[in-house]
Amino acid sequence: MRTAPGRDRPPTYSMVPTPGELPVATWRLEHGWEADGSFEEHTHDFPGLAYFETTGGLLRTGRRAWPIEAGNLFVIAPGDVMGRIHAADLADCQGWGVFFTADALGPDVPGAHLAWRTHPLLFPFVRGGAIGALRLRVPEPDRPEWVARIRALHDELAQRRDGYREAVLAHLVLLLVGVSRLAADVVGDLRENREPLLAEVFEVIERRYPQPLSLRDVAAAVNISPGHLTSTVRRRTGRTVQEWITERRMVQARRLLVATELPIGEVGRRVGFPDAGYFTRVFGKVHGTSPARWRSAAPPVAG
Predict the structure, then answer these.
(1) Is residue 108 part of a domain?
(2) What's the total number of domains in the chain?
(3) 189, part of any domain
(4) What is the C-alpha separation between 207 and 204, in angstroms, rounded?
(5) 288: confidence class by pLDDT, cuts 50, 70, 90
(6) Which of 3, 40, 217, 300 makes a 20 to 30 Å CA pair with 66?
(7) Are residues 231 and 112 in the same domain?
(8) Do 20 and 129 reside in the same domain of the chain?
(9) Are 223 and 251 found together in one domain?
């Protein structure tokens, strides 16, 4: 479904499956690929992946035209602007697109944007749309496995044999686990995508988030004014520095709540919240539930 563009925004596409259909789609990205209307500059309100097996061609995201190299994996977050695709852009490439909605991961995952903040496999898609799709690189030894996994997902969707729903979910989850592992080095990803200031900001946050840390502290560490840092980070990521500090603290808080039996107050102290009550309020605002309820709802850790 296409939503008409606003004054300063391109059109947005939504995935609206027919009743009974899984909200998951795959297609080949190569010479001759066509899709009605999707050659224009546009955004999606759902996440996606574009993986390329060969070198050649271009992918336009944000304001950039990325030369495609074998093993490139583009993580397309909701809101990322995808540039207009010209006829020759994909002439020399071979790849796959995988798109889905959060509902595909199960009935307990909300379809709203809250899911991108709370589901652990969707963390790589938590970004603003300003910088375009995130480019990762699959190591060469792992590339045949990536192709086989996407082909298996594609075949299950096409053939719809008994149990295909469970198979599709299993293949999708394995893909997202792979994405999460590749995207674990946030600073490295930003350097790969030519964002040295953001890389430096994230280095500071990563090193100091367990301690008291403010916008002024980060600005001093990267030697620019707080106002300039605020406008730059918001423009490039869609979030403020303080929101990124909170996000990093929440990632570690979720890990500690699930993987340890530490008291809630101690979890808060370890992620930069000396006041247990304040930690609980911030956690609740971000996740819509308390730390204690998050812990009790989490599946047991194998071990």
Answers:
(1) yes
(2) 2
(3) no
(4) 5
(5) confident
(6) 3
(7) no
(8) yes
(9) yes
Are residues 285 and 157 part of one domain? no
**Quick check: is 21 in a domain?**
yes
Range of the domain at 146: 2-184
Six-digit token string for 48: 């996606």
Kindly provide the residue ranges of all beta strands, DSSP E only, lying in the chain, ordered along the sequence: 2-3, 12-13, 24-30, 43-44, 48-52, 58-61, 64-67, 72-76, 94-100, 134-137
Strand 12-13 to strand 43-44: parallel, antiparallel, or no bridges (unpaired)? Answer: parallel
- List residues bridging with 100 in a β-sheet: 24
Look up the CATH number of the domain holding residue 259.
Answer: 1.10.10.60
For 135-163, the DSSP string reads EEE--GGGHHHHHHHHHHHHHHHHH--TT
A 10 A CB-CB count for 160 gives 13
Question: What pLDDT, in 10s, does the model give residues 63-95?
Answer: 678 889 999 998 887 767 787 777 677 777 889
Q: Are 66 and 193 in contact (CB under 8 A)?
A: no
Phi-psi label, residue 238: left if phi above 0, alpha if psi -120 to 50, beta otherwise: left
CA pseudo-torsion sign 290, 127, 109, 171:
negative
Last residue of a domain, one of 184, 210, 237: 184
**In whole angstroms, what is the distance from residue 229 CA to residue 109 CA?**
34
> Which residue pairs, CB below 8 angstroms and at least 24 apart, start in 204-213?
205/241, 205/244, 205/245, 205/248, 206/248, 209/245, 209/248, 209/249, 209/252, 209/271, 209/272, 210/252, 210/270, 210/271, 210/272, 211/272, 212/272, 212/274, 213/245, 213/272
216 assigned to some structural domain: yes
Q: What is the pTM assigned to this prediction?
A: 0.60
Domain boundary among 120, 150, 184: 184
